[in-house]
Amino acid sequence: xxxxxxxxxxxxxxxxxxxxxxxxxxxxxxxxxxxxxxxxxxxxxxxxxxxxxxxxxxxxxxxxxxxxxxxxxxxxxxxxxxxxxxxxxxxxxxxxxxxxxxxxxxxxxxxxxxxxxxxxxxxxxxxxxxxxxxxxxxxxxxxxxxxxxxxxxxxxxxxxxxxxxxxxxxxxxxxxxxxxxxxxxxxxxxxxxxxxxxxxxxxxxxxxxxxxxxxxxxxxxxxxxxxxxxxxxxxxxxxxxxxxxxxxxxxxxxxxxxxxxxxxxxxxxxxxxxxxxxxxxxxxxxxxxxxxxxxxxxxxxxxxxxxxxxxxxxxxxxxxxxxxxxxxxxxxxxxxxxxxxxxxxxxxxxxxxxxxxxxxx
Length: 361
Ligand code: SPD
Known about the structure:
Layout: E1 6-8, E2 15-17, E3 24-30, H1 36-46, E4 49-55, H2 58-67, E5 74-75, H3 79-87, H4 107-113, E6 123-136, H5 137-144, H6 153-156, H7 158-164, E7 169-171, H8 175-185, H9 195-208, E8 214-215, H10 220-226, E9 231-235, H11 236-249, E10 255-258, E11 264-272, H12 280-290, H13 293-303, H14 318-321, H15 330-333, E12 336-337, H16 344-359
Parallel strand pairs: 3-4, 3-5, 7-8, 7-9, 11-12
Antiparallel strand pairs: 1-2, 6-9, 6-10, 6-11
Bound molecules: spermidine.
Spermidine binds at residues 30-33, 78, 177, 235, 238, 267, 269.
């Protein structure tokens, strides 16, 4: 720990108090992913100052990490990206002796994340969720009828999405999630790494592109909540944030989150410490704080994402723990798939395909 240094300077018994070296931790997390009161609580409890920045794309985070010297002590890649980053030497192994709260982690989630991080040696789960559809109930019912269903048809059937285009459609700018969703809709294995399957997913996306207002990974929260858009391919908790924002605003907007019938991606966001982090001890203190059941329950109650901490579950609001779209029951879980990291050769195909979808060239 860096503490005040008291240094005797001379025989004249002059005593100087050395410059206080404030302890700090620098965290880079997804946008709209924490209750800021929790950050204040961290500093109040530990005396460690926190610098907190946000991002909204695994690809952007990966580029920063691979370039080195990111300047961050804690970052939060999704598990399917983390695996490749561990192999590239981006992260350091966690010091388990500094993480006593890891006893609260949920074995089921640990087992799932171990396929990307064997033994969970480099990361802890922060939150997990699904990638599905956010709907403005009134606007979509007006255009498709009350029985608009719960299928990926809403996004991938040209006949349906073309009728929703005028009320606004956002799709995540997340190639490794959206292309597999399209492959899944086509009846292909969404986890396939065959370039021909990825191309087919891309072709389907190109066919719906004229009806998409924007590819973006965070603006859809406010846009859904304000009634600026009626459809979003987005992340579970973000759609719930929009739902409750609209409720609070009492603006007549009703939002629904759909885990589509055909199945959806289940993903895991993992906190990890870069190899070149400057504040390793403080980073562990932060991870341990996050794993305190009371703290992670507060985070989940605020952002509506499920977490990987089993002891926190009795502390969750019932509108969170009892919502099957946030904590999916076993039967829903059967329709969910988990992605494995793409090797660089396949990742290049995904990136090329996505550029064609988004730019139309
Ligand atoms: N607003 C927080 C969004 C967090 C989304 N994590 C993305 C995981 C994708 N696999």
